[in-house]
Write a structure and sequence with these properties.
It is built from 14 helices and 13 strands. By secondary structure, it is α/β, with parallel strands linked by helices. Strand 6 and strand 7 form a beta hairpin. The radius of gyration is 24 Å and the shape is globular. This is Phosphotransferase.
């Protein structure tokens, strides 16, 4: 990706000269609707910068800009053994990470546990007991007969939470299919720690983190040029390092304004006044639905243009298609788009003609390209706000890792927004991240203990207990 301008993926435009005029016109209409040009990208970024600043103010704004109490990047010399707990929507992962004496190196042991569906709507006690079960199983299988000292735990809790302290967090609302009574509005750390204590497990939660912040910190551990962490997956988000003096909403704490502090933007909420349109145009959850709605619109409002005489009842089902449907269309290597044809037959029971396949391919390209270009706006806004001229950005998430051409299209958008000369190399490079919810969580626990040792106790609640971990 580093080079003089990213190589752009081939477009199907050259395959369209045989298309009927009415379909060619429709493709042109789609191009007009879905294309985000340089001027519009710049306009979005300028608005984005203002929204980031508003989120840091006392009044706040649409973008939460959550203060994480992660106060600094790792220097690569962190050492020790830490547990990491990653509570996702489908699995629970427990890792033991040893940061070695070799700079930027670590050893990792991990186990995955399935999250039972019934837990998601069960009781709070069942949830914490299940998590404690997994931690206990992990420790018993990896440390049998050992007399363990207390292990610090980094807990990746990727649900919207507000944190006045790094070792605590209040759940704002459940997402990812969870709906457990009595947890929203509550601190999630004490009930878990109470069960761990009751079982005699030698574990103390040293840091509660979000996966985006973890992505940034884990990536910075192995690459000192990393300045931003991003998730481009089911949702979109970013984290970056701010300085305390630029966060008016914590000014009352009278901290040194030069101190660094990580901000978890939660910027899927950008342009909330437009019903989170930004996230809906960029996140994996919605890309297939945009494609479906565009086709349904043609079926209903331009009768006879596509799928004439075919049963389109499956196409009418909301969210029947996800981003992987578009990815498969874009990956189809055949000139006659035979894989796309098979996909329509298999998933939707529709037998498209060759011109309809060409239209579908171009529509998928346009939706995928717009998502990548808009995704670059959040990164560009952070770089603009912080006057970052060059850096690496650690990115994770299914859209980033699996959607074809996403990286190249995003890189091209950054070139346009940030006005690099044609002969210049990419200065801001988005690259695959390290394991944020595992290694990142352990590192943040390590950085927190480092702060305790140095006497920088801002945003740490259980100070005395933390000292027992040193």
């Amino acid at each position: 990706m580093v080079g003089i301008g990213p190589k752009q993926p081939p477009s199907r435009k050259g395959s369209m000269h045989d298309l009927p005029q009415n379909l060619l016109q429709q493709i042109k209409d789609f191009e007009d609707v879905f294309t985000v040009d340089r001027q519009l990208l710049k306009k979005i970024v300028a608005h984005f910068v203002k929204e980031l600043e508003k989120g840091l103010s006392v009044e706040g704004g649409n973008i939460p800009m959550n203060v994480t109490w992660v106060m600094g990047f790792p220097d690569g010399n962190e050492q020790g053994t830490f547990l990491a707990l990653d509570m996702g929507g489908t699995n629970l992962r427990v890792c033991e990470i040893t940061l070695t004496d070799k700079k930027g190196a670590f050893d990792i042991t991990q186990s995955k546990y399935r999250m039972p569906e019934e837990l998601k709507t069960g009781t709070a006690e069942e949830l914490w007991e299940y998590i404690a079960d997994c931690l206990q199983q992990f420790i018993e299988s990896h440390h049998e007969e050992e007399n363990l000292t207390k292990l610090p735990l980094g807990f990746t809790f990727s649900y919207p939470a507000t944190q006045e302290y790094i070792d605590h967090g209040i759940l704002q609302r459940w997402t990812k299919g969870f709906d457990i009574d009595g947890v929203e509005g509550q601190d999630v750390v004490p009930p878990l720690e109470a069960i761990l204590q009751k079982r005699g497990l030698p574990i103390k939660v040293a840091a509660l983190i979000n996966d985006t912040t973890g992505t940034m910190i884990a990536s910075a551990y192995t690459d000192p040029e990393m300045k931003i962490g991003c998730i481009f997956g089911t949702g979109v988000n970013a984290a970056y390092m701010e300085n305390v003096g630029s966060v008016p909403k914590i000014a009352h704490l009278n901290l040194d304004p030069e101190l660094p502090i990580a901000i978890n933007c939660e910027y899927g909420a950008f342009d909330n006044e437009r019903v989170q349109a930004f996230e809906k145009m960029t996140a994996g959850l919605y890309l297939g639905e945009i494609f479906r709605l565009a086709l349904v619109d043609l079926v209903d409002n331009k009768p006879g243009l596509i799928f004439n005489g075919q049963d389109v009842s499956k196409l009418r089902k909301p969210y029947i298609l996800d981003a992987s449907f578009l990815a498969k269309i874009e990956e189809d290597p055949y000139e006659n788009l035979s894989e796309t044809y098979d996909l329509f037959v298999r998933e939707l029971g529709i037998h498209p003609t060759e011109p309809e396949l060409e239209l579908s391919r171009r529509l998928a390209e346009l939706i995928g390209t717009r998502a990548a270009r808009l995704s670059a706006c959040g990164v560009a806004a952070i770089c603009t706000k912080k006057n970052i001229e060059s850096c690496h950005v650690g990115a994770d998430g299914s859209v980033f890792t699996k959607y074809p051409h996403f990286k190249a299209r995003g890189a091209q958008a950054l070139r346009e927004i940030l006005d690099w000369k044609p002969e210049e190399k990419d200065k801001v490079v988005i690259m695959a991240a390290e394991d944020g919810s595992g290694v990142g969580a352990a590192l943040i626990a390590a950085l927190t203990l480092k702060r305790v040792k140095a006497g920088n106790l801002a945003g740490i609640r259980d100070m005395e207990e933390m000292k027992t971990l040193l």
